[in-house]
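Re: the 368-residue chain
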Amino acid sequence: MTVVVLLGAAVPAAAQSFDPTLHQKAQDYTDWLIEWHSTGLGGVSDIVFTDETRTEIYRTWGAGDSEDWTATYLVTQAIRYLVTGETQARDEVLRIASYLHVVKDITGDPGYIARYAAPNEAPWNVEHIGADNLYVGEGEYADDFWLGHESRDKYITWFWGLAWAYEAVDDAAMRQTIRDDFRDVVDTLVSNNWIIVDPWGDTYAAASVGAGIRIPILAQVARVLDDPEYTALFDEEYEKARNTLGLSMFAFFNKYFEYFAFINNYSSVQGLFHAMPDRERFTHFFHNVEKFRPAVLRRRAQSVFRRRALRRVPARRKLPGRRTGRDPRRRLPKPARHERRAQLAARVHVHGPSSRPLFRLGGSDAGE
């Protein structure tokens, strides 16, 4: 993967030069994200501005998935610091790692991680008013709220992001907090038979952490903790799953296989590149990935994601009795097709992850 090559070639910033235009562009994106998309307690989410001036946030958008994007942002800053040594990158690693401790600490359950945590006031709570997974914090978090109904994908990225932070920045306090949090969460998962259980004993969708997810998590935990107990736990879980590992990765019968069964690969698998302790198990794991998540499904998933998630164009439905499966009623004249492509291209830049327009990246569309 590119990330591995990047880390392997990482040298101090003074020893390399960066394209000034691209470097400034990356800096501008980072500054924009910090100013608008990582507010409140620090969780990263999409937002909706109050108007086209883009000077005031009306509400968050999709903050229930914030943990994924927050951890991914943390990884980017960890890599940035390893490559450039820039002070801002280091500060961001410390800031976001601190937030990922908050989402664990705020729940009051040492082994349960919140989806999102923020001040219990506008604009951060507007999206979630009346939600059945909104809980008010207690003690030092009495002025904050957090979102529950947690699922395994958030745990994947939480471990992934903090493992990167641990390796990138040599800060004693941060590293100790990560070690303590890793122990708490893993011990809780083990005691619950790898089921995510909330502080009230309830479970929700995607609460089961299968072998295909346990192994990357435990590989990173064992590397961070460097403790024989957790190395042995990794060994034990791997050997238990060795002969059935492929089945836990097989997503064909998952109704979301076109997208959701693959979306977590970037975070769950990437950690193995430097965390898997030996080549034999590394090779065995990826043999199962390639065997049970074949290229045809990966290509299908990518195609569906591009078409439905980015452009939001419905999949073409086949008409009975037609060999090509093309619906002539959906075929636009050539000039109209070019115009439609231009509109779709513009929407990719104007819209956020939902189909409603956001005052965020450009264009004059207005919406909630």
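The chain is about 50% helix and 5% strand.
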